[in-house]
Every structure is written in C-alpha cells, then in structure tokens.
C-alpha cells in the first residue's frame, strides 16, 4: 500500500527502512548532514553486512560525520551535482518525501512523504530504482571533501564570530563561535544575514555563514583561494529553483572562471532578484547602474565579480 506520512511518521518509516534492511539501503539526499540516531542505525546495518549506498548533491556536511560515513564497511558514497531529491529504500520499501537526514529537518520542519510497499506498488518501486541507477551511473564516487579554503601566511590567526564578533580561530568554513553555532544550527540557513566580517571583525553588510568575509578581506585572498570561492559560487545554483541566466552575465562569470560560458549552469533568476522590474533590458540596466558594471566588458574586474557574487547571496538569503 501507499501511505501519506507527516514528520513523525516519516522519522519512524525511515528508521524502519534502515533497521529492517537485509541486503541493501539506498539513500538519496541533499547533503551529508546526518542525525546521530540515523548514523547509529547505519553503523548497525553495516555490521549486519548490509550494503549502503548514499548519493548527495551538495558538499557542505559535517566533516566528522562525512569521515565516519566514508569509513563504514560496505558503504559507497556518490556525489551528483545539483541533486535535490530525497528518497530512501531497501529491498522491500520506498520512502519519497521532503525530509533530509539532518537533526534540523527532523526537529524544526514540517515534512511530508509517501511510503510505498507491498506487491501492489512494486511497479512504482521498480521505476524509482531504475531512475536511481541512472543517477548513480551519472555520479562520481566521493572520497572526501576535495576543497578547503587556503589561508594566506599573512592572514590573521584569529578570526571573529560573524554573529557576535567573539575572537575564534580563523577558518572561513567555520565562522561562528560554539554558542552562536548552536543558535544557527536550529535553522541551518547559510545565507542568513550576520553582523561581522570573520577576518577583520568589523561590522559589515552582506555577511553570512556562506560568505563570512567582507569585500576588502576577500580581495586579500590568494588567486588559488579566490578560485576556490568561485567554485563555491557555482554550487549556489542548488539554492534557487529557476534557471534563467542572462548570457551577458554568464559570460562575465565564465570569464572569471576561465570556462566556456556553455559550461556554466547557475540558477540565477534575474526577475526574482529585481522583483520590481518587468523587462529583462531594464534588469540589465539596473544591474549595470547599481554595481557600476559594464556587462559587455570582456575583462571584468574582481569588483564586478564580487558584486554579482554578493547579489546572489543576498537574493538567496532574502528569498529563502
């Protein structure tokens, strides 16, 4: 039968899928942020020689959890860029829904899901599993985080918490103190507007967990560090649902990344960002005016890049 489930029922169903698996468990989710209860279930499944396959779409999970998952016996992890689907199955049951495996998803969100099982829905389950195999075949095996933002030798050893300005270790991937991280983790909104630059500690506009440094400090990065952040910019596409990118903007971004513009796939909906503008030409004119950018330029400056970079971050933070 098929059952419509709410949050607590989804928790129980997902728990059962992991506990009752005899041969395999397949997990398709947004990222590897896994609640400790589920992590414990996966450990036990691994000890039962159950094959575990995890496919995710964004590399921003807890490094310690990622490391433990990768070290579980009988476990293979795949990365499929832009994967946002959430579904879970073993050899007998399939759960499709909105819930991630994170603690925040379980505690704070209202989730819905559908559980399929029994012979009546074997055709549905088979179809989803076929699609899952296609996703896996188009994925890459994940061996661990490929990227850490380099820290310049001239960079300060101490940073500031972006929320309270408390002195902490300088690490752009962990820009919150322990107390503020606890508050932030309730919602885990990487684009929520914070107060202080992680590097210089000054109060600045446009600071967030995802973008913890002000423009001046960002410009002090080495070229390699800047390129790492540019790669992160590409991953912002996972946060917006529409796929409308003006070609002239795409060319600028491609130029900065030294890529062909056809290789860029960023979900940047200009109409969504400039809500009060109805015509695309007006949107382009507004961007040029607001950011002092010549969008037909073949050699945009780092300021041009940063303004677009920050604009997307603010749009995401405002629109959720």
UniProtKB/TrEMBL annotation:
UniProt cross-references to InterPro entries, sorted A to Z: PLD-like_dom
Pfam families xrefs: PLDc_2
Ranges where the Phospholipase D-like domain occurs: 16-130
Gene3D superfamilies from the UniProt entry: Endonuclease Chain A (3.30.870.10)
Domain of life (superkingdom): Bacteria
The name this protein goes by in its record: PLD-like domain-containing protein
Species the sequence originates in: Chryseolinea serpens
